[in-house]
Amino acid sequence: MASRTTPPPHAGLVVHQPLGRRHCSACRRGPLPLLVMENGVPRCLDCADLDHLVFLPRGDPALTRRAREESRLSAVVVRFNRRKGRYERQGVLVEEDALARAEQRCLADAEARRRRRARDARRRAAEDVRFTAAFAAEIRRLYPGCPEERARAIAGHASARGSGRVGRSAAGRALSEGAVISAVVASVRHLDTPYDRLLMSGVPRHEARRRIAAAVETVLRSWQGAGLGSAG
After folding, report:
1. Per residue in 185-222, pLDDT tens?
2. pTM of this structure
3. InterPro entries, per this entry (predicted)?
4. Sorting pLDDT into bands at 50, 70 and 90, what band is 169?
5. What secondary structure does DSSP assign to the chain, as a single string?
6. Gap between the terminal Cα atoms of the chain
7. Strand partners, 80
8. 34: exposed, middle or buried (C-beta count within 10 Å: 0-12, 13-18, 19+)?
9. Are 166 and 187 in contact (CB under 8 A)?
10. Torsion over CA of 100, 104, 107 and 109, rounded to 10 degrees?
11. 109-113 contacts: CB < 8 A, separation 24 or more?
12. Lowest-confidence range among 4-18, 37-51, 164-178?
């Protein structure tokens, strides 16, 4: 097991968070929250000429990287984990003005990401509006008797982003006839027949579909006009 006085494997200056009460071997101050080991004995940050640095805890890799880039002097802060038998990184010490500059750089990046996310969201929303309109138009082409508002509702439901419904499948995105018909049939099944009530009463799905197939076909025929619909 590694000794607490053995320097941990970090490049550059290393500062320790002691596990016990330690005092500076030079000025005798203590107990020390942070210390530097010099020749096997502890020194406080004042005596080690690191007292002007500020502590940045771990957890934000981008901020840590930039703070160290901006800081002329920095140190890695570690603490010994007795259970694991090794030193673990706790954060870094950097110059205060360097940390401020790093925070500004990260804020600028965050704002840029926010603007990009907003642009992407607007683009996706516009794409969704166009696709839903195209899906509704295809419903009306196949089923000219379907009310326009109903066609829009079916299209919106089937093509909702992230829903996993037929409108988001590859066939749905391609506006294939089979996908459009499936969306229409599903809507008719749930809204124009007692299908949901049958399921709630314990009727098995396949049996419930069999019982309402004629009702679905009737609605589809009325919407299709002279043609024949498919109840699936």
Report:
1. 999 999 999 999 999 999 999 999 999 999 999 999 99
2. 0.53
3. DUF2293
4. confident
5. ---TTSPPS-SSEEEE--SS----TTT---S-SSBEEETTEEE-TTTTT-TTEEEEESS-HHHHHHHHHH-SS-EEEEEEETTTTEEEEEEEEEEHHHHHHHHHHHHHHHHHHHHHHHHHHHHHHHHHHHHHHHHHHHHHHH-TTS-HHHHHHHHHHHT-TTS--GGGSHHHHTT-HHHHHHHHHHHHHHHSSSHHHHHHTT--HHHHHHHHHHHHHHHHHHHHTTS-----
6. 69
7. 87
8. buried
9. no
10. -130
11. 109/62
12. 4-18
- Residue 30: band (very low, low, confident or very high) from pLDDT cuts 50, 70, 90: confident
- Tokens 């038998």 correspond to 85
Q: Report residue 54 as tokens.
A: 């500020």
Nearest of 182, 23, 165, 2 to residue 78 by alpha carbon? 2
Q: Quick check: bond before 31 cis, omega within 30? A: yes
- Retrieve residue 63's tokens: 């901020």
Q: Which two tokens stand for residue 81?
A: 């984990």
